[in-house]
Write a structure and sequence with these properties.
heterodimer; A: 6-stranded mixed sheet; 4-stranded antiparallel sheet; 11 strands; 31% helix; 26% strand; globular; B: mainly alpha; ABC transporter involved in vitamin B12 uptake, BtuC; two-stranded antiparallel sheet; disordered N terminus
Amino acid sequence: MSATMDDVQSPGRDGSRSLLKMVGIHKWFGQVHALRGVDFEVTKGEVVGLVGDNGAGKSTLIKVASGYHRADEGQIFFEGQEVKIHSTKNTRDLGIETVYQEQALAPHLSIARNIFMGREPSTFLGFMDTETMNNRSMDALTGMGLKLRSPETMVSTLSGGQRQGVAIARALNFKAKLVILDEPTIALSVKEVQEVLDFVRGLKEKDIAVIYITHTLYHVYSVADRIVVMAHGKTLEDVPTRDTSVDELSDIIVKSTLGE
Amino acid sequence: MQNVTVARPRLKRVNLGGLSTPIAFLLAMLIFAIFSPGHRFLDPRNLGAMAKLTPDMGVVALGVGMLMIAGEFDLSIASVLPFCSYIFTQFLIAGLDPFVAFVLVLPIGAAFGLINGLIVVRTGLPSFIITLSTMLFWRGLLYGVSHMMPISILPYVPSDSPLAHLLTGQIGPVPVQILWFLAFALILGLILHRNKFGNWVYATGSNQDAAIAMGINVSLVKVACYMLIGFLCAFAAVMQSVRLGSFAATQGIGFELKAIAAVVVGGTSLRGGVGSMLGIALGVFIIQIIENGLILMQVPVFGVETFIGIAVILFVVLNNLTNRQFASQSA
């Protein structure tokens, strides 16, 4: 019998505002059992930090959520309805946008072509509407406070922070309900990190949910409503931010690494 | 987010990376125009001969270039082309109308490409190895079924026949073959640079993981490119056979490396993600110009191949240098 939304008890969450719920997720890569029955939920407008050491399963979990990988077992619910996720296109159609750790940008393409990669507005016979792409790209970047000279600028010429901005602008351009940020502050300057964190706060104000994956506990602690700690493919802790501290989280992660 | 403004690049110079191929094309024309004995390079008969010969490899190179932009290789064109020519010849011998035979062989060529594409995407093995293997396989099979005997097709497609006029005729002083080449270059250029499929080709070659993450079916992109090459091989095979008046199992030998050389000289990166249809077309012309010019200058055959090899290396180095220079100036 398949689990329903009510079967999974999660502390402190309002089921009616549940956006994404993953129940009993298993994922194998050959012999490696990367996810071992993970339950995970995020509600509308909530920022959930997903932390853990290397190999904990964080990236695998969000890649299942984003459709990059397919779960081997388990169920996924979106806005209360069970969904079958077969591809990244499925999840993007649902309103789940992912900003990958590697930003998932094609360096030899322009900003506009990257923002619309896979979803190019087209006219007759699939010919791209480049004017719309350029205009909407500039609007998306300007909306984030990014001023770049031209949407036809090649991504390979941008700095790390600017590329991150383009990747985030891409996620926002398509009216996301849930934005997944995988290590969004890696290789960014202090100023750029603050900009990303301000941006996350801005998403929350717009009632857009965020899953924020990171190794940097101080960053996620300052913006998350709730923090989930993973280790060895399982969830160890799922706690409101106000009920924990950076030191406590760090302790949990270190102990999990040592096998305690 | 705070305003982050990119400082206007100091770049006042032109992007040399984009101009190296056109400059090389003009230089090659100039050098051989000046140094060929009696300036025969610019003789209309010589230019006409080049215009007839260039598209045999050139048409296929356009497809090879698109595939290389997507990050893969196809060496099997050297065998698929003569095999398509053989099939066309057999259709004619069987009594099919030449136009019907021509139309039928085109999807057969695409089927060769489909086989290559499916093996590459399903196995995940390097396409260089896969298509090297299929090249050898098809060549062996062709030698077996044809016994390496040339077959004349003049009784079926005489030089004044409609198909011959369509594929090898003249419009004024201009051979139709070069018009076909330019037409294919234009159509494929529009697809590559203006169509969303073209964006998927670039995305697949530039960052395949990103393309997958953005929902692009990269397997479909690659298979489509392989099928395009197969189609172009079939077209070029018939065009070449009609021009020669015969099938020969040795048609297309060496095309695989010459096509890659033309594509690389045209500025396409061996790593994928970089290139243009204009560059590929110019690269085809440059290779042909070098070959033709050196022959006119009575350089021995081995010298021609050596020179083309040196030219390819120089172009790769030059393209890398100018692309790096432009990137550092724009950053």
